[in-house]
């Protein structure tokens, strides 16, 4: 459809701010690179985020999901540290384990055959701080009917709490399951990449707190280069399981503004393996809606055609 | 039908079996009702204008009221669903072609105004010419109103909805036609209800064909086949078939049968919307609907190279 | 310095002791509030135009109009920006003062900056200038604003009478005075000039536990006072 | 380290990024293990066997840094011929008295290198009016009588620098550790030989001239009845490898509280006074002379102890302290042995200690054997609790577990409780000393709310009131209070100025001006100094702890951020970073070195840090006969706080449980000590009380090992974390961790309730069944461990039973710290409630055959 300029909805888009109506001299696109290979699972990011953004607590529940009692990103959790305990061979399985591996840790007693000389790579404890991806093509932003969700001058995707009317459309449109409505408030919330701090040139709270530089903040273009180098370094060290996630500007969301270095398949961390922005198909959707509307109109007309009973 | 998937249960990894997507926060019954009411109102507006043109005053009256009433009740349902209802007007803050809800708001607002004005004029007899003009407007906005709701659910990351984005508009168009036709069959004398019967019949056929195409989509369509949404979809289909049979055989002869068939169409239409809605919820709640198709797509991409991104690939 | 760290300090470098006041000096290369306002101004209609009546102004402020007339045709960016977003700034900028502090939890000694607004703590965050912590904090350190502002903090003296089943209120002055009386009495009661023939000059009736979470100056006064009292059973977490 | 000190761990990650190998030794697979190159699961409490085997590996393969070892350690010292090792006595050293459980260390001593030394020493003893033999009592192994630097040796001693003499330390060490083999490590620790080999190779490969290895530890080493010796084993290893006093080396204690280092330097501890001056011991110290005699005049900076002591007395009693009255030495109360916290708790239960201040601690949750803590509290006359939140220690009288069981009844508890709200770290100004001895000043940000006050204000106010009430008293016992220098400027709210106190700590000269260095302290009463090692923090009237020069504006040592005691030295003993001749060991590891051309050819030590040495002492300096104090430090004696200037591979005295470490089993253990016939540390301090019964070793009733630890998301006894929503939601319930094998053995289901029982208590928690807990294979058997994060208690946003209730009280004989390793049983389901709980534990005791006549013993050594 001609209203959609090329690349606005799908595919590589190198200047997302310009596409969103900002002048050429807008600031560079900012983002996160979360290197999970150095994450120690301390959850400082979760707390620093809440302290800065006044996000309420999200309930007290011992989940048994390793040390993850936060469970998932949501309206009151904008950073979420996943903990994955993987035993067995040191390397991640290429496809699947032959059994669903979402059992709780230790669900399969090993008994006498359990190896006792640990440090043999028999056990991996993966940690990863998840966050809103600030997609190049953001489903939440596309579907928001009020303009509450908008693209900032930094290329990030932010909910404006003074506008949001809590329609909830964004919730269904996020291919990562990030954004959600806060029940007692009614509005949608998610990571703002500390929009307010960015305006003053400050680092987002989570990245500032992160003790081990697992969460790195900066210009997206630079972060991508850094991530490429880090991946190369890890591959040279023989960490073949390392891969970048959300780095590729050609992927289904045009690349993430917050991307990751993972040590296993994305779904192991609760991430979709190949997310696509729903709006990629909006042209097709409207086309079919149009035809269907015409069909309905036609049915209406046809109903009055013919002899009168 | 036994509840089982048509493809072998795939093996996949996930994070403690947790869902990847968020479950849509849209409330039941607000939103499925809204889907239904939009269809009813939109198709009724067409029916009303047809009736007006063809001189069927009782059909016109019922259809006009159905259009206005559906639009009003639908708007109420929609506003009620909002987390901040007082900010309903923010829906008109921008016009976003990427957001079916935004587009829908710019359809619903004029439609509701036109349909309301037309119905008011009809009922009160005031400003009949303007009322007719409004009726034309409503008829123009009616079909989009009835079908845009398909875009509303299709343009999401919910696999069961998104993967049906080509078919859902037709399901919704057919479902709307059934509802409008069904309601008129219930309330309009036999001699004026023929267009309503025809609309319901054709709508039912449209919906059945489109629904069938959806259910054949493999794993992503599994939620339409199993569990509660599966039962709802089967009920709706069966209801449509029964109502259509009755309508075709005796719809024009028996007032009672016509009314029963009409009510069955209505029930079918409502049930379809709940079925589609709940299939989406179920689809969001199980990570396999996200992981498995996406892994398959990645695998195809690896083997098939760049061709994978072309239109027509399931998006998952 | 690691690459990431260099980047981070570049972005967040806050002047060592002067707090945020001279942050302008550290304005980064990519954004500043004035730059932004200029940017927004060029994207949106300038609202208070001469000659327009208020309604027109309001209408022109309607984002859909901005959308239709500006470059953000899809209404996903500049056109959708709200007034709040346009003028947003971090609350730390409005702080009355920024105070250098140190995290109160473990002994790593991470440097904190405490932002104070209207006599209340508005934010506590890591100080990037620290050679120990480089601005980073763990979850506990990151929660220290909540520690300070916690609604469950007890801020009134509580008193439990012997054999009582409930707390009572007690005036602070009275409480400290009562404690002084107790100290004097117990000290005397358990006074011991000698043990096993050796002079001890002490009281065995009074003990104390604590100090590892306190300041050096506080520990100093405590030990000094206790020693003068003759109390020796003075201990803290270092033994536990 | 990633668990409990995440921000400090950034430097480990930094090292890893640069190629360092990270080895993590821990019973559990923790967040540290997750990012380490090697995780070595070890049976809790078996670290001496593990480290000892590494020592043996170094010694038997000649992998020690010989030049360093010969020059800087006491490897070459010849030990008295009377010395007998554990090799000779099946687990005991010579000098053990089975009656008292104490060692007499005289047989561990250095041989003098001349008869003249013996004669001089005897002469000195006679000058003090002692017979030479009575020196032994002064050199008692009992550690509470020593300050920092350990016990002073009498002489540097005879040395054989070829290290061949069979009586030299090096050879003794070699023989002592010979039985600590990789096979023994498997047998004791559950660590396989390949794993051992991997670590041993990594460790030795990364030590020497060009490379250094660092050790970090926390309470995983200190919380044992052999804790001090665990750290000594690491010290021996690091000295042998040349990793002490050099950049990138060292043994770093990761301490757990903001100013726990400060509260040791300026102690709220029973056995020391500020600056590690010993509290006077009644049997030995009845005058200033007696108090300082052990150290005075000895080589090193402890030789000036009289200046430090007199200056402290001057800061305490000001003008009242005069040369004529021994500077008020007599005002100091004397100790008579162990008055540590657990001993004090016992005297509370027994009714001989009636008033208790608890200040920023929560002993009913944070101290071991919580029941004894609560029984003690319940028998007080009065209790003062100062804290931010309503902690369990303040509410014991109404909601402790013993109330639930009926062992205590609220209406029968006569303790008068005062809860006084305290100020937080932003509501007062003051300094913390962090774990690397750095003082950092905090400015006050806001006023404390309501009745909340700083401790500074409370104690100042309390002191004022007591002094007012006693004014006019002629009772001699009140003189120390009435003569106390207790006058500090205050702000409008009555809060004393912290900087004024800091200045008193720093010390002042005759003119009242702040001193710049402890070398300026005098023993004539002309100087006052509250803590000699902190002298200089307020030099030139400037609060150097307040310095905040950004690290990017200075070199990597960052000397202008805060202030580090002593003398702003960032690394202790850094003279050892240079070879004996003063040149760097290698360019890569250069730090402090001798620059012979500096100062117009007089030469001095230079480098990025403050040299931990006398600045102009040449490497070839040999002290003249009879030199005292700092003058007696040779140019190649880097350990300037030791009286012989050397690092001690062998402790000729000062360590209560032997001159060398030996592995003993924890007081409760399922394992028979394979190394010696002696099962437990023979010198361990037992706490004899019916509420402290010890599980019999090897008991089938208590077959599992348990240990306690921290989680990142919480802080010690929880008062500062369980009360905060943001931390509570991250770890919202108490839990324990077990291996899948143990879960199968006991039928435990992941996420369900379980009950953990010892002879002291039974608690309940949810269980996490996880591969992170390893089943350890010791020889032909498995040992299972139960992991217990200990943060919980009855109050706060998240509540639960306190794991410390399970822990027994058996103390290290050097420092009186408890052993947190014990044995237990674990069963599915929740624990019984009320009186049934008491009966439940009682039944366990009966079945395990706990000897309630000697409950504290454990009975493993006959």
Automatic annotation (TrEMBL), chain A:
Cofactor note: Binds 4 [4Fe-4S] clusters per subunit.
InterPro entries the record matches: 4Fe4S_Fe-S-bd, 4Fe4S_Fe_S_CS, FDH_Electron_Transfer_Unit, Formate_DH_Fe-S_su
Gene3D superfamilies: 3.30.70.20
CDD domains, A to Z: FDH-O_like (cd10560)
Residue stretches making up the 4Fe-4S ferredoxin-type domain: 30-58, 123-154, 155-184
Keywords: 4Fe-4S, Iron, Iron-sulfur, Metal-binding, Repeat
Database matches in Pfam families: Fer4_11 (PF13247), Fer4_4 (PF12800)
Binding, [4Fe-4S] cluster 4: 144, 164, 167, 170
Swiss-Prot/TrEMBL cofactor(s): [4Fe-4S] cluster
Major localization class: other
GO molecular function, one term: 4 iron, 4 sulfur cluster binding
Positions annotated to bind [4Fe-4S] cluster 1: 39, 42, 45, 210
Location(s), subcellular: Cell envelope
SUPFAM superfamilies the record matches: 4Fe-4S ferredoxins (SSF54862)
Binding site for [4Fe-4S] cluster 2: 49, 191, 194, 206
GO cellular component: cell envelope
Gene Ontology BP terms: cellular respiration; formate oxidation
Keyword Secreted: no
Record carries keyword Transcription: no
Protein name: Formate dehydrogenase iron-sulfur subunit
From TrEMBL, chain B:
Keyword Cell inner membrane annotated: no
Main location group: membrane
Topology in the lipid bilayer: Multi-pass membrane protein
Chain segments annotated as transmembrane: 33-53, 65-83, 103-121, 133-158, 170-190
Entry GO CC: plasma membrane
Location in the cell: Cell membrane
Pfam families: NrfD (PF03916)
InterPro entries registered for this protein in UniProt: NrfD-like
Alphabetic keyword roster: Cell membrane, Membrane, Transmembrane, Transmembrane helix
Family: Belongs to the NrfD family.
Protein name, as recorded: Polysulphide reductase, NrfD
From TrEMBL, chain C:
One Gene Ontology term, aspect cellular component: cell envelope
Keyword tags: 4Fe-4S, Iron, Iron-sulfur, Metal-binding, Oxidoreductase
SMART domains, per the entry: Molybdop_Fe4S4
PROSITE patterns with a match to the protein in the record: 4FE4S_MOW_BIS_MGD
Molecular function as annotated in GO: 4 iron, 4 sulfur cluster binding; electron transfer activity; molybdenum ion binding; oxidoreductase activity
Keyword Oxidoreductase (UniProt): yes
Domain 4Fe-4S Mo/W bis-MGD-type intervals: 96-152
Principal location: other
CC cofactor: [4Fe-4S] cluster
Subcellular location: Cell envelope
Name used for this protein in its record: Formate dehydrogenase major subunit
Signal peptide bounds: none
Species annotation: Nocardioides terrae
UniProtKB/TrEMBL annotation, chain D:
Pfam family, one: Molybdopterin
Region (Disordered): 103-158
InterPro entries: Asp_de-COase-like_dom_sf, Formate_DH_Act, MoPterin_dinucl-bd_dom, Mopterin_OxRdtase
Subcellular location: Cell envelope
CDD domains: MopB_CT_Formate-Dh-Na-like (cd02792)
GO process annotations (BP): anaerobic respiration
Domain Molybdopterin oxidoreductase, first and last residues per copy: 3-394, 420-463
Main location: other
UniProt signal peptide: none
Name of the featured protein: Formate dehydrogenase major subunit
């Amino acid at each position: 459809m001609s209203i959609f300029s090329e690349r606005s909805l799908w595919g590589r888009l190198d200047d997302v701010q310009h596409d969103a109506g900002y002048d050429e001299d807008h600031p560079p696109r900012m983002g996160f690179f979360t290197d999970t290979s150095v994450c120690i699972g301390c959850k400082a990011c979760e707390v620093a985020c809440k302290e800065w953004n006044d996000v309420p607590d999200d309930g007290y529940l011992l989940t048994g999901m390793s040390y993850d009692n936060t469970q998932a990103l949501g309206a009151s959790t904008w950073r979420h540290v996943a903990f994955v305990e993987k035993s067995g061979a040191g390397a991640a399985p290429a496809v699947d384990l032959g059994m669903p591996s979402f059992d709780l840790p230790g669900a399969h007693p090993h008994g006498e055959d359990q190896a006792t000389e640990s440090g043999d790579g028999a056990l991996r404890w993966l940690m990863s701080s998840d966050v809103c991806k600030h997609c190049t093509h953001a489903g939440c932003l596309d579907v928001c009917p009020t303009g509450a969700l908008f693209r900032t001058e930094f290329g990030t995707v932010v909910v404006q709490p003074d506008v949001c009317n809590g329609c909830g459309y964004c919730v269904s449109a996020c291919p990562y399951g990030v954004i959600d409505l806060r029940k007692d408030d009614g509005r949608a919330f998610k990571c703002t990449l500390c929009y307010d701090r960015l305006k003053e040139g400050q680092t987002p709270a989570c990245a500032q707190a992160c003790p081990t530089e697992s969460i790195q903040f900066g210009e997206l273009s630079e972060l991508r280069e850094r991530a490429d180098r880090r991946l190369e370094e890890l591959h040279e060290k023989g960490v073949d399981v390392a891969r970048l996630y959300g780095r590729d500007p050609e992927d289904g969301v045009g690349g993430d503004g917050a991307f990751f270095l993972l040590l296993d398949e994305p779904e192991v961390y609760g991430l979709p393996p190949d997310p696509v922005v729903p709006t990629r198909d909006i042209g097709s959707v409207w086309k079919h809606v149009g035809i269907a509307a015409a069909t309905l109109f036609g049915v209406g007309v046809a109903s009055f055609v013919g002899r009168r009973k | 039908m036994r509840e089982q998937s048509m493809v072998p249960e795939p093996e996949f990894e996930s994070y403690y079996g947790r869902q990847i997507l968020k479950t849509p926060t849209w409330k039941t019954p607000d939103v499925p009702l809204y889907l239904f009411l939009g269809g009813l109102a939109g198709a009724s507006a067409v029916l009303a204008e047809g009736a007006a043109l063809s001189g069927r005053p009782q059909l016109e009256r019922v259809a006009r009221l159905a259009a206005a009433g559906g639009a009003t009740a639908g708007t109420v349902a929609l506003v009620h669903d909002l987390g901040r209802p007082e900010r309903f007007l923010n829906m008109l803050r921008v016009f976003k072609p990427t957001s079916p809800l935004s587009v829908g708001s710019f359809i619903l607002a004029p439609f509701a105004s036109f349909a309301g004005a037309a119905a008011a004029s009809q009922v009160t007899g005031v400003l009949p010419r303007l009322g007719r003009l409004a009726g034309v407007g409503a008829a123009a906005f009616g079909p989009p109103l009835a079908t845009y709701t398909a875009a509303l659910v299709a343009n999401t990351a919910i696999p069961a909805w998104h993967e049906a984005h080509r078919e859902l508009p037709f399901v919704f168009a057919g479902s709307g036609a059934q509802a409008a036709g069904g309601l008129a069959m219930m309330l309009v004398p036999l001699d004026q209800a023929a267009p309503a019967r025809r609309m319901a019949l054709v709508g039912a056929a449209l919906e059945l064909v489109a629904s069938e195409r959806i259910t054949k989509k493999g794993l992503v369509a599994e939620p339409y086949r199993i569990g509660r949404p599966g039962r709802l979809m089967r009920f709706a289909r069966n209801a449509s078939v029964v109502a259509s049979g009755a309508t075709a055989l005796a719809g024009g002869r028996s007032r009672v049968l016509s009314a029963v068939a009409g009510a069955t169409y209505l029930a079918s239409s409502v049930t379809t919307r709940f079925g589609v809605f709940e299939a989406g919820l179920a689809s969001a709640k199980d990570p396999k609907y996200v992981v498995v198709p996406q892994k398959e797509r990645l695998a195809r991409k690896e083997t098939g190279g760049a061709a994978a991104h072309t239109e027509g690939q399931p998006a998952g | 310095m690691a690459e990431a760290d260099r980047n981070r300090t570049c972005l967040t470098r806050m002047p060592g002791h002067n707090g945020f006041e001279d942050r302008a000096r550290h304005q980064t290369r990519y954004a500043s509030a004035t730059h932004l306002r200029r940017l927004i101004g060029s994207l949106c209609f300038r609202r208070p135009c001469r000659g327009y009546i208020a309604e027109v102004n309001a209408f022109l402020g309607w984002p859909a109009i901005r959308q239709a007339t500006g470059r953000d045709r899809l209404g996903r960016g500049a056109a959708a920006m709200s007034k709040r977003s346009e003028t947003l700034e971090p609350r730390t900028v409005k702080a009355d003062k920024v105070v250098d502090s140190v995290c109160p939890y473990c002994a790593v000694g991470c440097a904190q900056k405490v932002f104070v607004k209207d006599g209340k703590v508005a934010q506590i965050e890591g100080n990037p200038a620290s050679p120990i912590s480089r601005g980073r904090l763990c979850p506990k350190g990151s929660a220290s604003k909540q520690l300070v502002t916690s609604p469950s903090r007890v801020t009134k003296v509580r008193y439990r009478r012997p054999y009582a089943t409930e707390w009572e209120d007690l005036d602070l002055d009275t409480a400290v005075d009562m404690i002084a009386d107790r100290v004097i009495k117990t000290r005397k009661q358990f006074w011991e000039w000698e043990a096993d023939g050796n002079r001890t000059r002490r009281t065995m009736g009074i003990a104390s536990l604590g100090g590892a979470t306190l300041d050096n100056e506080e520990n100093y006064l405590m030990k000094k006072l206790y020693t003068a009292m003759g109390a020796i059973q003075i201990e803290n977490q270092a033994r536990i | 380290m990633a668990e409990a000190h995440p921000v400090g761990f950034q430097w480990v990650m930094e090292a890893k990024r640069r190629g360092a190998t990270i080895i993590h030794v821990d019973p559990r697979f923790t967040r540290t293990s997750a990012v380490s190159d090697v995780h070595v699961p070890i049976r809790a409490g078996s670290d001496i066997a593990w480290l000892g085997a590494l020592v043996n590996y170094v010694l038997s393969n000649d992998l020690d840094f010989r030049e360093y070892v010969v020059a800087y350690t006491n490897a070459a010292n010849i030990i008295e011929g009377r010395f007998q090792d554990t090799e000779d006595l099946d687990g005991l050293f010579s000098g053990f008295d089975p009656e008292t459980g104490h060692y007499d260390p005289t047989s561990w001593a250095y041989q003098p290198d001349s008869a003249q030394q013996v004669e001089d020493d005897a002469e000195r003893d006679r000058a003090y009016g002692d017979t030479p033999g009575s020196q032994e009592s002064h050199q008692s192994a009992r550690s509470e009588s020593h300050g920092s630097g350990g016990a002073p040796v009498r002489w540097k001693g005879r040395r054989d620098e070829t290290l061949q003499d069979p009586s030299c330390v090096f050879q003794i060490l070699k023989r002592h550790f010979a039985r600590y083999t990789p096979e023994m490590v498997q047998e004791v620790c559950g660590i396989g030989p390949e794993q051992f080999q991997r670590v041993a190779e990594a460790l030795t490969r990364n030590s020497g001239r060009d490379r250094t290895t660092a050790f970090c530890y926390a309470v995983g080493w200190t919380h044992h009845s052999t804790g001090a010796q665990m750290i000594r084993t690491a010290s021996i290893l690091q000295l042998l490898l040349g990793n002490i006093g050099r950049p990138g080396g060292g043994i770093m204690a990761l301490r757990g509280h903001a100013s726990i280092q400060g509260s040791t330097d300026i102690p709220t501890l029973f056995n020391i006074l500020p600056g590690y001056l010993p509290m006077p011991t009644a049997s030995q110290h009845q005058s200033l002379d007696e108090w300082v005699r052990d150290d005075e005049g000895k080589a090193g900076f402890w030789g000036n102890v009289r200046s430090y002591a007199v200056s402290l007395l001057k800061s305490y009693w000001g003008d009242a302290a005069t040369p004529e009255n021994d500077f008020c030495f007599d005002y100091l109360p004397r100790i008579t042995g162990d008055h540590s916290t657990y001993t004090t708790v016992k005297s509370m239960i027994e009714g001989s200690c009636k008033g208790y201040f608890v200040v920023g601690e929560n002993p009913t949750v944070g101290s071991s054997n919580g029941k004894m803590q609560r029984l003690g509290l319940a028998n007080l006359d009065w209790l003062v609790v100062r804290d931010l939140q309503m902690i369990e220690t303040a509410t014991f009288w109404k909601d402790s577990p013993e109330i639930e069981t009926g062992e205590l009844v609220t209406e029968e508890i006569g303790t008068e409780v005062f809860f006084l709200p305290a100020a937080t770290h932003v509501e007062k100004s003051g300094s913390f000393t962090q774990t690397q001895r750095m003082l950092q000043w905090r400015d006050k940000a806001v006023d404390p709310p309501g009745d909340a006050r700083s401790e500074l204000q409370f104690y100042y106010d309390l002191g004022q009131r007591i002094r007012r009430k006693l004014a006019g008293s002629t009772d001699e016992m009140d003189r120390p209070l009435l003569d106390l220098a207790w006058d500090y400027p205050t702000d409008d709210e009555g809060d004393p100025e912290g900087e004024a106190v800091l200045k008193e700590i720093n010390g002042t000269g005759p003119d009242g001006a702040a001193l710049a260095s402890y070398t300026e302290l005098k023993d004539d009463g002309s100087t006052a100094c509250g803590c000699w090692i902190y002298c200089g923090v307020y030099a030139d009237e400037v609060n150097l702890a307040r310095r905040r020069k950004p690290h990017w504006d200075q070199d990597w040592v960052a000397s202008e951020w805060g202030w580090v005691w002593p003398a702003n030295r960032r690394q202790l003993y850094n003279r050892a970073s240079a070879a004996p001749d003063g040149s760097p060991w290698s360019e890569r590891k250069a730090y402090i070195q001798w620059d012979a051309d500096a100062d117009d050819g007089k030469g001095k030590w230079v480098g990025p840090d403050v040299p931990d040495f006398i600045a102009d002492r040449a490497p070839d300096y040999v002290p003249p006969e009879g030199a005292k104090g700092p003058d007696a430090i040779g140019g190649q004696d880097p350990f300037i706080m030791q009286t012989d200037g050397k690092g001690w591979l062998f402790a000729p005295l000062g360590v209560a449980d032997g001159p060398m470490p030996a592995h003993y089993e924890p007081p409760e253990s399922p394992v028979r000590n394979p190394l010696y016939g002696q099962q437990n540390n023979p010198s361990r301090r037992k706490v004899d009380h019916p509420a402290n019964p010890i599980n019999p070793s090897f008991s089938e009733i208590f077959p599992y090992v348990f240990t306690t630890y921290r989680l990142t998301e919480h802080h010690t006894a929880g008062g500062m974390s369980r009360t905060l929503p943001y931390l509570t939601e991250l770890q919202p319930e108490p839990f324990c961790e077990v291996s899948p094998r143990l879960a199968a053995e006991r039928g435990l289901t992941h996420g369900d309730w379980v009950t953990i029982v010892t002879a002291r208590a039974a608690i309940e928690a949810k269980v996490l069944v996880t591969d992170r807990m390893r089943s350890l294979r010791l020889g032909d058997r498995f040992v299972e461990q139960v992991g217990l994060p200990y943060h919980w208690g009855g109050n706060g946003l998240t509540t639960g039973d306190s794991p410390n209730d399970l822990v027994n009280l058996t103390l290290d004989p050097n420092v009186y710290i408890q052993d947190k390793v014990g044995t237990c049983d674990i069963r599915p389901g929740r624990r019984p409630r009320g009186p049934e709980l008491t009966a439940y534990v009682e039944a366990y005791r009966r079945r395990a055959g706990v000897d309630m006549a000697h409950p504290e013993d454990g009975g493993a050594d006959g």
